[in-house]
Recover the amino acids of this structure.
């Protein structure tokens, strides 16, 4: 099997189990993003794929070969580390070309690849500088350059954009996606930033404390989160969770300050159920101003009263910190850049977008 496979991989540090049996399979040429909170085991997983950290048990395959005990340089991978170390005595060009020169690549080819990478990384004018004369973000880009000049079977990135400012980060996201299209190589990218995951990934792996919570395309994990953890992690601002009563007979969910009909996709799952305690999930972006649609309110839009505490202007939308029945929620309302600050009153919620979760297990009801 080509691509990258982890089969029953575990990792213990002493007696501490940081990776319980982990099974993952990445297709050849796929861009996979592993996302999760700090300490969940992302770097450990990546370092085990790279061969920098031995597994405690299980096997790893790259390009159809069992590499579980192979040395890093035998794995045909290029990696950007979370804590990158550049060679201090070499300039930017020297750092970027080191692996190529070591591999005996021709001078012309080295120059060509370093130039192309430097251009993409906006480093062309720094090629002759030493790392100590660069900013943190520039150094991080050099570390990235060292990897992308290589032609490896698999590229591993550990939070490669964390030191860049917001604008450069967003440019680099696009550049990486373009690079991936061009190289058509398997890329495994680790981050705690769900926006990076959503924008770049073919598939996202969401991890929590070593456990895989869900694997899916950005659309799948956003539209059909499997549980409360995924629902709260994917999406920005985060999904609101409110205690509620599921009225299965009436196909409604009610709680303090709201009463919402359930969308058709949930009917089968709840039909016949009597009153039951659940958690309802409402994404901020699925609220709307009352007359957003020019006065005609479609039937799937239900009224919800918001007691607005703060309205933040962010251009074409406003972010609201508000209360529903005394519980704090956030709402993102598209109202256009010239609108006045939004105030308390009746808003609309897109009931096709109502999520339900089992209160005890946290699993999505679907
Ligand atoms: N050498 C080590 N010895 C003991 N425990 C370790 C060691 N390295 C990592 N850990 C622990 O393993 C867990 C996973 O760490 P890891 O670095 O993989 O997390 P991460 O998801 O990359 O986090 P971050 O987003 O902060 O980089 C953490 O609880 C960490 O404390
Ligand atoms: Mg890490």
């Amino acid at each position: 099997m080509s691509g990258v496979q982890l089969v029953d991989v575990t990792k213990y540090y002493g007696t501490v189990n940081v990776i319980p049996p982990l099974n993952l399979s990445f297709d050849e040429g796929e861009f996979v993003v592993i996302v999760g909170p700090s300490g969940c085991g992302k770097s450990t997983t990546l370092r085990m794929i790279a061969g920098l950290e031995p597994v405690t048990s299980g096997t790893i395959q790259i390009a159809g070969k069992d590499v579980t005990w192979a040395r890093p340089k035998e794995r045909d991978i290029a990696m950007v580390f979370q804590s990158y170390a550049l060679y201090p005595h070499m300039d930017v060009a020297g750092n970027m070309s080191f692996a190529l020169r070591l591999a005996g690549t021709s001078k012309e080819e080295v120059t060509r690849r370093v130039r192309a990478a430097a251009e993409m990384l906006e480093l062309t004018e720094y090629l002759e500088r030493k790392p100590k004369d660069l900013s943190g973000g520039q150094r991080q880009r050099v570390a990235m350059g060292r990897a992308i000049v290589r032609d490896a079977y698999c590229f591993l990135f550990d939070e490669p954009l964390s030191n860049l400012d917001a604008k450069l980060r967003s440019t680099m996201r696009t550049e990486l996606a373009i690079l991936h299209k061009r190289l058509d190589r398997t890329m495994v990218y680790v981050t705690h930033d769900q926006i990076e995951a959503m924008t770049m990934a073919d598939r996202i792996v969401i991890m929590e404390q070593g456990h895989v919570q869900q694997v899916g395309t950005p659309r799948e994990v956003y539209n059909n989160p499997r549980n409360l953890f995924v629902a709260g992690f994917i999406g920005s601002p985060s999904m609101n969770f409110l205690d509620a009563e599921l009225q299965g007979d009436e196909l409604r969910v009610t709680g303090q300050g709201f009463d919402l009909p359930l969308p058709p996709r949930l009917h089968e799952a709840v039909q016949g159920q009597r009153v039951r305690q659940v958690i309802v999930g409402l994404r901020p972006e699925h609220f709307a101003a009352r007359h957003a649609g020019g006065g005609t309110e479609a039937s799937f839009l239900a009224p919800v009263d918001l007691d607005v505490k703060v309205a933040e202007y962010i251009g074409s939308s406003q972010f609201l910190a508000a209360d529903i029945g005394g519980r704090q929620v956030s709402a993102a309302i598209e109202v256009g850049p010239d609108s006045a600050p939004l105030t308390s009153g009746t808003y609309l919620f897109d009931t096709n977008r109502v999520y339900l979760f089992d209160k005890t297990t946290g699993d999505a009801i679907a």
In short: The chain is about 25% helix and 35% strand. The two ends are 33 Å apart (CA to CA). The CA atoms of residues 91 and 128 lie 5 Å apart.
